[in-house]
Amino acid sequence: MDEAWSNAHANFLSSLSQSELAALTKSARKIVYTKRAQIFTAGDTSREIFIVLGGCIKLYQLSPGGKEIILWFCFPGEMFGVAETVRGSAREIFAEANVNSTVLVLSQMEFENFLCIHPQAAMRAIGILSARIRTLGHSLVDMAADDVETRLVRLLLRFGAGALPSPCQAARSSPEICLNIEVTHNDLANLIGTTRQTVTSTLTRFRNQGLVKLLDRHIHITDPEHLKQMLDAV
To answer: What global pTM score does this model have?
Structure first.
């Protein structure tokens, strides 16, 4: 549905050749984080680049009033912590394991050396990060131009088109889409700029209309075509 969204969530690791992947992982280390564990916080020194091997990482900021504002969910193969590390500045955001997750960690020097030696991989990384910036820009436009229902529909369909973890094992009928990511109603509200109560009531209405169903803390889109038609009518 949204090419920029799909490109922004592209799996950097799977785009590498065998030799590139071997060079990248040669000096990297793996760290396992339990659900809700902090990977870094705003103000921390930034000296490392992270790549998700498994699980999901939530990137967010805190408003002056302490409200959590979600910026991004990183899925397997995605990079994070790049901007501040390359600039040599302190962390400006928080990174937290949304579920039990495994992360590949490289020092700034290791990552920069890898990109210098493998320019094609560097161009792919630049393309992914550029698409992420475009996608965040589109999200700001959506918040200004769309009502809450439209923003939620757009987010669900974008998740459905992105690089989410493999679908769950529950039986699905075509063209049902499994959004196999644990997100709370509060998470969804933070992503589209509304309240948890509004997301809950909107999802309940969608469920009553047979458009979605909730299963084991994640969402299935049961009628994606209807949701697309709702966007076309905007």
So the answer is: 0.83
